[in-house]
Amino acid sequence: MKRTTLLLTVSLVLCSLTTLAASANFQKADLLFDQEQYALCQSELLAQKDLASTAQEQSEVLWRLARLQVSIGDELAVDDKDGRYREYEKGEAYALASIEAYPNAMAYLWKSSNNGRWGQTKGPLNALGKAKGMLEDLTKVVNEFKTMDSTETWYVLSSLYDELPGGIISFGNKDWAVSYMRKAMETIPSNILNPGHYKKFAEELYSRNWNAAKRAKEFKKMDGDWKKAATPLEQYRYYEGKDEGKVTPFYSSVQLVQMSDRQEALMVLSYVKAKYKVFRTLQPSDAKDMAEIEELYTKWT
After folding, report:
1. pLDDT digits (tens, 9 = 90+) for 35-92
2. How far apart (Å, rounded) are the C-alpha atoms in residues 34 and 128?
3. How far apart are CA 85 and CA 68, in angstroms?
4. For residues 151 and 279, what is the distance between their CA atoms, to the nearest angstrom?
């Protein structure tokens, strides 16, 4: 009896170790993605897909493949529209499969992002056609999954509201775009420079062009809306007005109410220019983004 019990215990331990060894591990794939080694990342994720032993692990692989497709599509020539459509459609398919396997915030995010890129490639009218579905997906990410620390979620939300027309045509809103982008800036992972986020934020501020007095007045109104908002997504429309703008951002020595939009835009670019000189984990695309930032800074000054 003791021998049987011992053999059973050993068998269970070995089975457990085998399952553990076969489990998917995403550390290498995530590192390759951050390093923009997309072909190697794809190979690694497909290998991990074969190792995934649960629905949740399958879902984790699939949303990462959906994320990867955005970057693969973006690397194609701008005039290779058919190629871009294929990559973004493949990304959407991965995201849908991830949701079917195990619903999660990142699958909805990258479904939305692939759809957004598809619409941008197709043209303004088709971008409008994708907008409602994108907003529904992003609403799930923030309101249902309570995902507040995803810089890409806030970036896509900001881009959606910034690039869409407002009024009776669609739901675009430049002010909400700026607030969402503020949140995107504050949630950039510490190991990634992400200069494209700084550039996008600076461009939104420069285009809006409120002076300091206008900001103080509008931030006071926003603070009331921030306090009354019913959902997180609605609340963060007014994020920059929180505490009436009497907040000092990480790239400044003065409060938001003490500067104009264009002063802040230049401050944002100055900060990332200085950070770029000392940042240790630069990615291949950072140099290109920084060249555009240098050009923009020169133009504005």
Report:
1. 999 999 999 999 999 999 999 999 999 999 999 999 999 999 999 999 999 999 999 9
2. 30
3. 14
4. 19
Write down the pTM of the prediction. Answer: 0.90
Residue type for 144, please? E
In angstroms, the CA 166 to CA 7 distance is 70
Break the chain down into helix, strand, coil percent, rounded to 5.
Answer: 75, 0, 25
Could you read off the pLDDT of 218-241 as tens digits, one per residue?
Answer: 999 999 999 999 999 999 999 999
Q: How many other CB atoms are there within 10 angstroms of residue 18's CB atom?
A: 11
Cα angle 97, 115, 235 (rounded to 5 degrees) comes to 100
**Do residues 44 and 28 make contact, with C-beta atoms less than 8 angstroms apart?**
yes
How many Å is the Cα radius of gyration of the chain?
22
- Provide the token pair at 33: 């993605």
Q: How far apart (Å, rounded) are the C-alpha atoms in residues 284 and 33?
A: 12
Which residue do the tokens 């979620």 mark?
A: 153
∠ CA(48), CA(87), CA(145), 5° rounding? 60
